[in-house]
Amino acid sequence: MRLSRLIPTAAAVAFVFVLPYEAVAHARAYLAEAQSDDPFGAACRVRVDGSQVTAYCHNPYPDTDRVSLHVECVHWWDLDSDGAPVAAGPAQTVQLTGRCWKEVRTAWVTHRRAD
Q1: What are the residues facing 87 on neighbouring strands?
Q2: Which positions ≥6 away from 72 have C-beta within 8 Å?
Q3: Cβ(93)–Cβ(61) under 8 Å?
Q4: CA distance 41 to 48
Q5: Strands (E), 18-99
Q6: How many CB atoms within 10 Å of residue 48?
């Protein structure tokens, strides 16, 4: 293998591992729902403040969205949590909260159509 091909590859791998935590994407989207002709899904903002997590979800659509907050903690002994689903009705904003004992690794919101 030529050295000129190895250097860009090594630099790209090193760059991925050196990214700061804030630069890593936290949103998890599902492609099938994103391409649907039927608009659905509350817009959510997730804020991490120390060990506390707060999410605000606003549903601008006519169908109810059942949103759940998921929190993953940094330490292995700190329990991750999956919040109970909360119904966000049409034109409604809901607040979801969660926490870790110490640091939060990541937090995200999942969406499900109400039955």
Answers
A1: 66
A2: 80, 104, 105, 106, 107
A3: no
A4: 22
A5: 43-49, 52-59, 65-73, 81-82, 86-88, 92-99
A6: 19
